[in-house]
Amino acid sequence: MKLLVTGFDPFGGEKINPAWEAVKELPDTILDSEVIKLEIPTVFNKSAEVVKEAINNHKPDVVLNIGQAGGRFGITPERVAINMDDARIPDNEGNQPIDEVIQKNGAPAYFTQLPIKAMVEGVKAAGYPASVSNTAGTFVCNHIMYQVQYMIATEFPNVKGGFIHVPYIHEQVVTKASMPSMSISDISKALEATLVKIVELKDQNDLKLVGGAEH
Amino acid sequence: MKLLVTGFDPFGGEKINPAWEAVKELPDTILDSEVIKLEIPTVFNKSAEVVKEAINNHKPDVVLNIGQAGGRFGITPERVAINMDDARIPDNEGNQPIDEVIQKNGAPAYFTQLPIKAMVEGVKAAGYPASVSNTAGTFVCNHIMYQVQYMIATEFPNVKGGFIHVPYIHEQVVTKASMPSMSISDISKALEATLVKIVELKDQNDLKLVGGAEH
Amino acid sequence: MKLLVTGFDPFGGEKINPAWEAVKELPDTILDSEVIKLEIPTVFNKSAEVVKEAINNHKPDVVLNIGQAGGRFGITPERVAINMDDARIPDNEGNQPIDEVIQKNGAPAYFTQLPIKAMVEGVKAAGYPASVSNTAGTFVCNHIMYQVQYMIATEFPNVKGGFIHVPYIHEQVVTKASMPSMSISDISKALEATLVKIVELKDQNDLKLVGGAEH
Amino acid sequence: MKLLVTGFDPFGGEKINPAWEAVKELPDTILDSEVIKLEIPTVFNKSAEVVKEAINNHKPDVVLNIGQAGGRFGITPERVAINMDDARIPDNEGNQPIDEVIQKNGAPAYFTQLPIKAMVEGVKAAGYPASVSNTAGTFVCNHIMYQVQYMIATEFPNVKGGFIHVPYIHEQVVTKASMPSMSISDISKALEATLVKIVELKDQNDLKLVGGAEH
């Protein structure tokens, strides 16, 4: 089994992007499954092109994108991606779509194929806070989750896709009042726990499938 | 123009449901548009039947459902409803669907037809906190929002539908630590501000339409 | 019985100060006790001079100062004032003491003479969130609470003093993300509930007296 | 220079107390200063007796007590301890003082002799969130901080005392919704950063001294 795990490149003048730093620290193999790590641009559409090229090159069984949602208290696998870009701030190339459809022929939303509730339990068993999230927002994170699902619906029917939001890291909240944070190392260990569950349950999906290509 | 506004009945042994109390305090007319107020059961499916009957009886132009999301800091119009019931607790008749599709032939999600960003601005101009929400959860609130959208997609193409989550009221947080709250009266005034915007902008929708019957 | 209740004047270029607006809305008489309302400057030391003059003029039995602590979720009577000014921002006249003793001959701290737990219960019974606070901070709020206590310790032994922090009002959080708020009118009603308790329990103090003039 | 650092024993049926676990992981020497680690009981008065015995045995220059304040977002050195026990729950031996004076002959409050602002800066420079706190509460944490200060005021004039509150650890919040947390290892590294500052600035105190024996 092959797992493609992505993290965004540094955003808005920052030197590092914690999501990518945590992905980089993942082991190269999890339960005999290969982990391919990929840094992707924090840019609408271009992020999707980079992922698509990697899917074509590596033929992964699973695509898991990781992004940061400052303010969250734990590891939050996303349930659903919606067909909507709505950016409060520009991406790394200055794009700022407002209430734009991502794919005109895409479904209004796609649900993840990953066992998100088992992944949450796996993180908790490893000693870290986690919960299922029902929104990936409307910025580049939801965008890439949606785009991967659209690729699955249209081109790669055997791939499973999903997205996980992670909290701020400690260094980022030093100048912020009252914001939860985790270390890169702990985020990475928690992500590893989700990958273990994905591999263990590769034949299961704890969401009844809805909203696939039939819509 | 006719506005059908609903609130849920008391839930889980409570004597009142704040959402319905706030709806009851709305004026009967807003900018010459009639406001029809309806209490609906906090029950999967049955809530939808009650709304459907009211749509058939009253022929409203707009259906706006109101529910409570304890923990939110202001008035939050919802952007999207997803085709998924996932209840952590039972509804008022003991139903507790887990990861269930709401409508097998429904779209994975429906976006509201209401001008949610203008509604948020209307509430703020009236002096109350508000923001667009991208998730109505997976309990009865998302359920009724989804069901109304499904009715619109399949039976009532001229109706506009939407949902607003409101915070706890003050009385509810007296025994809770550190939870935001508003008075019923203030919630009602804020809801009125959203209805004014809906009437004023009846020919507009600030989301580009996606995910309708074509999917 | 005479109650002197103060609120600060507008701070930092604001047009209104919610604490004073809430005080202004208090009734003039509570359970036959006269309520004297006084706006005081948001200025170290000068605020204390204004209160002292009012004590000399009105001979109140109780001095209750009201201030705002943005971020608090309810009405929070303060237990204790400490002998320390430490201002992160300048007051309305540009004073910004850092780790300064307020009164060289004062006690390190003074506990309120008011029945703060009963006051909290009174607010809750009126339907609003409330809790005892153990810190009034180190800005002008703690300063005036401390100064009144110092006056009581040194000049007005029959006066009872205390301080209540109130949350943001709704209008203030319209541009702030995720901050709790109450309306001026609700804050005022909650403050009235504390005054009722003060009058009812005028011969009681639910803190065993410590740290008075003997130190 | 000798540093006595304490952590509480497990409380309320828990198997570990994170504060003590973090203390245990501290190095034995910091900048040539010896670090003596002591587990103390989560019990009013008895905790103070244990610390006093250790002061007599080890003759430390600094006594730093560590405790947990669930809900805090970072490392929070305390500014002041107040002469007040007020326990919402019983301690480990069933004591539950309500509004009780700790020391009849003690000052109403004592300020720490430690350079708390420099300690905060040290933690931030190490990459962890931190801020000065103005209340240690009214449970065993404030109690031990007060008692150590009382000992300093009455018996050990050359000792410097202080207290630091630390957040929940990750394992503790797995079953709690939306609570900030840090790993034991990160808490320990942050505490080490405060000790470095204490040693470096052993001749400084960034609070002007107030409320000592002279009152």
From TrEMBL, chains A, B, C, D:
<protein>
    <recommendedName>
        <fullName>Pyrrolidone-carboxylate peptidase</fullName>
        <ecNumber>3.4.19.3</ecNumber>
    </recommendedName>
</protein>
<keyword id="KW-0645">Protease</keyword>
<dbReference type="GO" id="GO:0016920">
    <property type="term" value="F:pyroglutamyl-peptidase activity"/>
</dbReference>
<comment type="similarity">
    <text>Belongs to the peptidase C15 family.</text>
</comment>
<keyword id="KW-0788">Thiol protease</keyword>
<feature type="active site">
    <location>
        <position position="141"/>
    </location>
</feature>
<dbReference type="InterPro" id="IPR000816">
    <property type="entry name" value="Peptidase_C15"/>
</dbReference>
<dbReference type="Pfam" id="PF01470">
    <property type="entry name" value="Peptidase_C15"/>
</dbReference>
<feature type="active site">
    <location>
        <position position="78"/>
    </location>
</feature>
<keyword id="KW-0378">Hydrolase</keyword>
<comment type="function">
    <text>Removes 5-oxoproline from various penultimate amino acid residues except L-proline.</text>
</comment>
<keyword id="KW-0963">Cytoplasm</keyword>
<dbReference type="InterPro" id="IPR036440">
    <property type="entry name" value="Peptidase_C15-like_sf"/>
</dbReference>
<dbReference type="InterPro" id="IPR029762">
    <property type="entry name" value="PGP-I_bact-type"/>
</dbReference>
<feature type="active site">
    <location>
        <position position="165"/>
    </location>
</feature>
<comment type="subunit">
    <text>Homotetramer.</text>
</comment>
<dbReference type="InterPro" id="IPR033693">
    <property type="entry name" value="PGPEP1_Glu_AS"/>
</dbReference>
<dbReference type="InterPro" id="IPR016125">
    <property type="entry name" value="Peptidase_C15-like"/>
</dbReference>
